Amino acid sequence: MIFFNVIRVVAWKDLLCEMRSRETISSMFFFALIVILVFSFSFSMDQQAARELIAGILWVAFAFTGIIGLGKSFSAELQNDCLEYLQMSPAPKGAIYLGKVAANLLFIVTAEVILFPMFVIFFNLDVVEDLPVLLLIFFLATLGLSTVGTLFSAMTVQIRAREVMLPILLLPLAVPVMIAAVEATRGALNGNPLALYRHWIELLVVFDVVFTVVSFWVVELILDS
Amino acid sequence: MLNTIIRKLQRYKGWFGAAGGLCLGLGLYYGLVASPPDYYQGEVVRIMYVHVPLAHTSLLAYTVLFLGSLWYLWTRDPVVDNLCHAAAGLSVFFTAVALITGSIWAKPTWNTWWTWDARLVSFAVLFLILAGYLMLRTFIDDPEREARYAAVLAIVGFIDLPIVHFSVEWWRTLHQPLSISMRGVSISKEILIPLVLMGIGFSILFVYMLIVRTQMLYLSSLLNAKKGRLLSQVHLAKVEP
Fold first, then answer.
1. Which ipTM did the prediction report?
2. Which of A193, B16, B185, B239 has its CA 20 to 30 A from that of B45?
3. Cβ B132–A168 below 8 Å, yes or no?
4. Pairs across A and B, CB distance < 8 A
């Protein structure tokens, strides 16, 4: 029972900090807007080309935005030595980790949900019927990024050059998530039948399960002073 | 325990070097001179005798790194960490050379330096994970923490590799099939002998390099520890009066 309480308390703490400062979600949001802008300069797209490219652009923006949020998740704990106290607390480290994952997942998915309409407007997309599937893909892929990302965030926050190391460690490992997310999103945006891209969603589920378990198991070696 | 094993291997490491060199020499002779040129690819095919064994050795090196990391987390023996560090460096080296030789082979046969084929992408990702591993190690000052974090990264990366491979394979096979497949053509003895010889040769060479490099890292960590102790003594001597 304590275990679930710790998860809830850690997630709630992050949520409360975020609601008061609004730092993470607003920085993610504006960063992603800039990414959209840069992409629209880089490719001149008609609607046909946009349909092909949009899934990739979407996930490049989401991944880099997510990395901003993931990095802040633990670097915010450096103030007032909060990280030390987290590590010293008798609470199970796995529960602290899961609380952080839950908070990160919530932040990044929120940012994505706010951003997605921007993409729809800027790139002239029409999505009505496939919205639930898209949300499911967003959720699963973001969970995949968050599980590994939170682990590496905890790892890189305690070393030099942490801003550089987080994406360098995370992105190669997240290759399956990126591929699956892009392919599934493309399928959903083009209105393909679910059966054509269902295996990508299944891959996301497999990745999520495997890395939640593995990260949960190894996080005690990271959050250990 | 590993300490004594390595010390024993240490004494015979010359034999490893010699055996590896012998296998590689024989393999190169069979591969470059004795074996016939390929029916389709001509003389170009001979780079295979270097490329394929190198790719296998890099995977062997990563497997050693993975097992070593588990072993380190089990025993917390600093020498095991030196072994992991050595295996990672060698794995990066073998992966890089495998990618380069593969690229050279791809130019005349596939008429491109690089293609987004499943195996190529998997190896590129492997290379990036290992490069990140080595970079991570340089950014941590405390040796114990360095060893612990590196072990975690190696284990997580190793578990990720099959998923990367499957995802890339699905991604590519859905779009376009491989232009040239090695399967279906049964390998004849003249090709198999040099291939196996080179594979054994590179594996023994890897063991030899692993021993030497582990010893090197172990000695340099000893040196660093001694240097730290000396420096603190000098510092104390200055402070005391």
1. 0.91
2. B16
3. yes
4. 80
